[in-house]
Write a structure and sequence with these properties.
alpha+beta, Molybdopterin biosynthesis moea protein, domain 2, Aldehyde Oxidoreductase, domain 3, Molybdenum Cofactor Biosythetic Enzyme, Chain A, 3 domains, 6-stranded mixed beta sheet, 4-stranded antiparallel beta sheet, 10 helices, 29% strand
């Protein structure tokens, strides 16, 4: 810092807030730390009794907090068009979603940057669905000035690609196969279909149709193959997922030739979830076996997996295993998902 006459302050950067007090009206900073003084500001500064100011003294190898904040922004998002960033202010920048999608981050590299000190990046949880305009992260450079060398180390810790990405949701064509002798016979009304259609509609899914079948292994297999042949990009098979001898859905899914990734997930509700992929001439189709909890629980494993599939991720058994910590839904009377700990 250096002390200068206020009348000579134009172009200099303030090292502290300048407070203005108007008795009975207001009290607060008329100019904040880091503000670049203009010629028009000088009469205002004099009017609040500031004949002298402490300003930042530009030195080789040092960066102003806002310059450093721009480097953090670049580290976080690069030029990703699916995210936007505000202008730097007091070393802070906010990053928001520019469209609906799945927020992804590299936790290891994020920690490496935050471990350097004198700078920080705070985010929402990764692998979560977000909406256009939603805040994703905030950055802050702690001191008013920081060594350029330290920001170079931040870039090195972040690596050669941004820490964040936002994957837009795809509007997939999907088919429903609802199983169960009691449903097929009309003894009870189908409760799966309406729930699943509502969840997919919220993401812009394109409904192809629904088949209601008894617990007939061959019939379920044929229905899945029929949807695949008709161009489905996602197939949901509900019911018959337990170990009861009358529950045939897992075997029927396997008979289609799918690659079974996992039968079971460390999530409650939703432990009997099945994830598989069916290869076709056009690529791979996710085929999901959904347990009974889907039709009555507010949030289940399906709510965790669906956004990732719609964002184009191919999930592994390890991805599902990661849900063990945070995979317990507390069944709150008023559901706030995804603004809660479920799946995180």
């Amino acid at each position: 810092m250096k002390l200068i006459d206020t009348k000579d302050a134009a172009g200099h950067v303030l090292c502290h807030d300048i407070t203005q007090i108007i008795p009975g009206v207001s009290k607060g900073p008329v100019f904040k730390k880091g503000h670049v003084v203009t010629a028009e500001d000088i009469p205002v500064l004099l009017s609040v009794g500031k004949e002298h100011l402490y300003v930042w003294e530009k030195k080789e190898g040092m960066l102003h907090e806002d310059e450093a904040a721009e480097i953090l922004r670049e580290i976080c998002m690069g030029e990703d068009p699916c995210m936007t960033a505000g202008e730097p202010s007091e070393g802070k920048i906010e990053i928001r979603a520019a469209e609906d999608g799945l927020f992804k981050l590299d936790r290891k590299r994020l920690k490496a940057v935050n471990s350097l000190g004198e700078m920080m990046i705070a985010t929402i949880h990764g692998d979560m669905p977000v909406h256009k305009g939603q805040k994703l992260a905030g950055t802050r450079v702690i001191p008013l000035v920081i060594e350029e060398e330290k920001m170079k180390r931040a870039k090195e810790a972040a690596g050669d690609r941004p820490l964040f990405s936002l994957l837009p949701f795809r509007k997939l064509r999907y088919g429903l196969v609802v199983t169960g002798n009691e449903v097929a016979a009309g003894r009870i009304e189908d409760a799966f279909g309406p729930v699943l259609r509502k969840k997919l509609d919220d993401y812009g899914g394109k409904f192809m149709g629904q088949q209601i079948l008894s617990d007939d292994r061959e019939g379920i297999t044929e229905a899945i193959r029929k949807f695949a042949g008709d161009g489905a990009e996602l197939i949901l098979v509900s019911g018959g997922m337990s170990v009861d001898p009358d529950d045939r859905t897992p075997g029927a899914i396997k008979d289609t030739g799918t690659e079974i990734i996992s039968y079971g997930a460390p999530v409650l509700p939703g432990a009997m979830f099945l994830l598989s992929y069916l290869k076709t001439e056009g690529g791979e189709i996710p085929v999901l076996g959904l347990p009974g909890c889907i039709m009555y629980a507010k949030r289940t494993v399906f709510d965790l997996v669906l956004p990732r599939i719609l964002a184009g991720e191919r999930l592994s058994a390890e991805d599902l295993a990661d849900y063990g910590e945070g995979g317990l839904c507390l069944g709150c009377e008023e559901c706030h998902y995804p603004n809660c700990g479920f799946g995180k």
